[in-house]
Amino acid sequence: MITDEVMSLVDQGEMLPLMEEFYTIQGEGYHKGTAAYFIRVGGCDVGCHWCDVKESWDAATHPPTAIGSIVMNAAKYSDTIVVTGGEPLTWNMEPLTTALKAQNLQTHIETSGAYPLTGIWDWICLSPKKNKLPLADIYGQADELKVIIYNKHDFVFAEEQAAKVGQDCILYLQPEWSVREKVTPGIVDYVMKNPKWKVSLQTHKYLNIP
């Protein structure tokens, strides 16, 4: 049973519902091919029907873990730390990122932007979802915009989102894995006609690594 004291620490960001943590190769976006330590935080109410980590949604199924322990493990493996979920901004990321930066680690986040941006970030990957759109403030801070393409209307959504980010934000279209063979040709064609976009693939899945 989780005590009120523990829940208070979770609410403050001093503990986080940790789903998993692992050292691997970043498979997506601008930093693909880079060794990185991933911290996957539980909790998400965005509810994408094609989500490949639905087991992350219920924060209550993941043990509240002290950020000191998380940071200690991360520092053993890599200079680049990727915080993902779930939706990590469900929680206050300030304590975690402050502790990571104290160890001179690079902090990256992948977020839907549906909650207020907290924490100190060297790289922000904004991956907006139709179910729960990003808050306005995060668009101008995103380093890369990654839109998942599941159907043809997602190209329209992608352009709507691209119109809101800064001019230096890198734009990616990524096929949703379960329909990749169906949608990838359309993505290739779209990027060739609209070269402001780049193709992002989940290369870690092709490499059969986490």
UniProtKB/TrEMBL annotation:
Gene Ontology biological process: tRNA queuosine(34) biosynthetic process
SUPFAM superfamilies in UniProt: Radical SAM enzymes (SSF102114)
EC assignment: 4.3.99.3
Binding site for substrate: 25-27, 40, 84, 210
Boundaries of every Radical SAM core domain copy: 31-210
Pathway field: Purine metabolism; 7-cyano-7-deazaguanine biosynthesis
EC primary class: lyase
Record-level Gene Ontology MF annotations: 4 iron, 4 sulfur cluster binding; carbon-nitrogen lyase activity; magnesium ion binding; S-adenosyl-L-methionine binding
Key words, A-Z: 4Fe-4S, Iron, Iron-sulfur, Lyase, Magnesium, Metal-binding, Queuosine biosynthesis, S-adenosyl-L-methionine
Cofactor or coenzyme needed: Mg(2+); S-adenosyl-L-methionine; [4Fe-4S] cluster
Cofactor: record remark: Binds 1 S-adenosyl-L-methionine per subunit. Binds 1 [4Fe-4S] cluster. The cluster is coordinated with 3 cysteines and an exchangeable S-adenosyl-L-methionine.
Catalyzed reactions: 6-carboxy-5,6,7,8-tetrahydropterin + H(+) = 7-carboxy-7-carbaguanine + NH4(+)
Binding site for S-adenosyl-L-methionine: 50-52, 86, 127-129
InterPro entries, per database record: 7-CO-7-deazaguanine_synth-like, Aldolase_TIM, rSAM, rSAM_sf
Annotated [4Fe-4S] cluster binding sites: 44, 48, 51
Role according to the record: Catalyzes the complex heterocyclic radical-mediated conversion of 6-carboxy-5,6,7,8-tetrahydropterin (CPH4) to 7-carboxy-7-deazaguanine (CDG), a step common to the biosynthetic pathways of all 7-deazapurine-containing compounds.
Subunit structure: Homodimer.
Cited HAMAP family: QueE
Family membership: Belongs to the radical SAM superfamily. 7-carboxy-7-deazaguanine synthase family.
PANTHER family in the cross-refs: 7-CARBOXY-7-DEAZAGUANINE SYNTHASE
Name this polypeptide is given: 7-carboxy-7-deazaguanine synthase
Lineage per the UniProt record: Bacteria, Pseudomonadati, Bacteroidota, Flavobacteriia, Flavobacteriales
Gene: queE
